[in-house]
Amino acid sequence: MKVGISEWSLHQNFGRFVENPHPMTVAQFLDLAGQWKVDAVQIESIPDDRAKLDAIRDQAGKLGLTIEVEACTIDPPKLRQKIEAAKHLGAKVVRTFPDLDRYRKGDPLPEQMKRAVKALKQVAKDAKELDVYVGVENHQSLVTDRVTYQDISGMELAEILDEVNSPFVGACLDAGNVFAYLDDVMETAKRLAPRVMTCHFKDYRIKRNFRGAEEAGCPLGTGIIDLEAIVKLLRDNSPRGNELCLQIESPVERILIPFLDADWWSGYQPADAQRLPAYLKFLAEKGEPSETDFRLPAELGKGLEEILEHEKQYNFQSVQYTRALLARLKA
Q1: Share of the chain residues as helix, strand and coil, in percent rounded to the nearest 5
Q2: Residue 58 sits in which domain range?
């Protein structure tokens, strides 16, 4: 297995969610990955210009970095562009997410899922033609105040992938995103493992909240996810085998899970409420007290330099943890 770092882990350094007048460039990101001695990177900021793609490929090659490409759509023409860019970069995997919305008015999620299957069947043809694998993420939204959007759960993604049934279209497992759907992490991971093409390797803390729960990103190994069990499961079941990249996605973020709000349930089938008792038990056992302060450095009024350095050190700690974990497990 390979240790990687996702661009999203450094989203503040890249100028997202903070006022950063000098955002990190892809070249600087690659240099940092080289300094941290990771094996791989996952890049979202993919240019259209071929000369710039060449520069990324050449720099990554000199640093010994495997590239994976990040996309944000399953629209076949748009995703083909990313697959072609991946091919040019020498990347074997494109991670994307379904970009569905369970709260979209007048467009029930089951109908959206049917269209997703149709789109991904075309994507599978493109991926096979170009010999690039696509990993669809069990994605979630960043809910900080009210529910405005939420994608599909890992279990729903598994249903879509079963229908697509292609060795070139699989999953990007994100264990942290599972909590937002009241699902069990290991059950989701077991369901997706035989189709996992790449992995967002992350950890979370969680606490009770008067609207349900709130999760906060944390350095790997300091949260509630059984990362050792995840590694063992993927080592034994992923079709990528030793080439599987554990892309550290350890963002400084906090996410509301407002399952006590009536409108939150409007996007779910009634049977899904059966998960609630098990989730409440999980919260009681693993959750921190509701008064625990999950505010981010930016929310605490820290200066930009401190915010950006905190994000880097937080992720470097996660790199060190993952290296040690893989060495111990001989994975």
Answers
A1: 45, 15, 35
A2: 2-329
